[in-house]
Amino acid sequence: MFALDPTDIKILNLLQEDARMDVVHIAGRVYKSPSATHERIRKLKEKGVIKSCIAVLDRTLVGRPTLMITLVKLNCHAAQVLRDFPAFMYTYPEVQVCLHLSGEFDFLLQVNLRDAEEYETFLDQKLCNLPMVDKVQSSLVLKECKMMVAIPLT
After folding, report:
1. Same domain? 73 vs 122
2. Domain-embedded: residue 119
């Protein structure tokens, strides 16, 4: 684990709020010089604390309003299968999130699509065609009540 000091935490909270914030503005908010702030951000990126800076889109406005939560149970738990399944998920752009779980189901997928017909195609032609998939349970997301990407830092 990378040790974060209070200034690093302030910088990270500001960047999680708005990744487009310029170094001069951040420096003013953390009471450091722009060059010192730039160096801290560079180190945070180099150490992998900051993985990427992205734009978060409104899925409805870009024509992909359907969000499905899909639970997947595998028919085998061999190490190779547990590596292969997530690798397949990386090849499917509609799968936004793939989480390995404990419990009855092995993986949770967040799948973003245009409509139910596209989800049916995803199931029939991709997910359920994988030889390691035993059971799939799907739920349509009716409403996003809270969807945060920021990690709380104190």
Report:
1. yes
2. yes
Q: How confident is the model at residue 60 (pLDDT cuts 50, 70, 90)?
A: very high
Q: What is the pLDDT of residue 116?
A: 96
Query: Domain for residue 10, yes or no?
Result: yes
CB 58 within 8 A of CB 124: no
In degrees, to the nearest 5, what angle opens at C-alpha 101 toward C-alphas 98 and 104?
A: 125
| pTM score, whole prediction | 0.89
The residue written with tokens 């499905």 in the block is 68
Q: Tokens 């800076």 map to which residue?
A: 53
Contact, 5 vs 30, CB < 8 A?
no
Helix (H, G, I), strand (E, B) or coil at 154: coil
124 located within any domain: yes
Q: 73 exposed, middle or buried (CB, 10 Å; 0-12, 13-18, 19+)?
A: middle
CATH code of 122's domain: 3.30.70.920
Reading the block at residue 36, the tokens are 């010192």
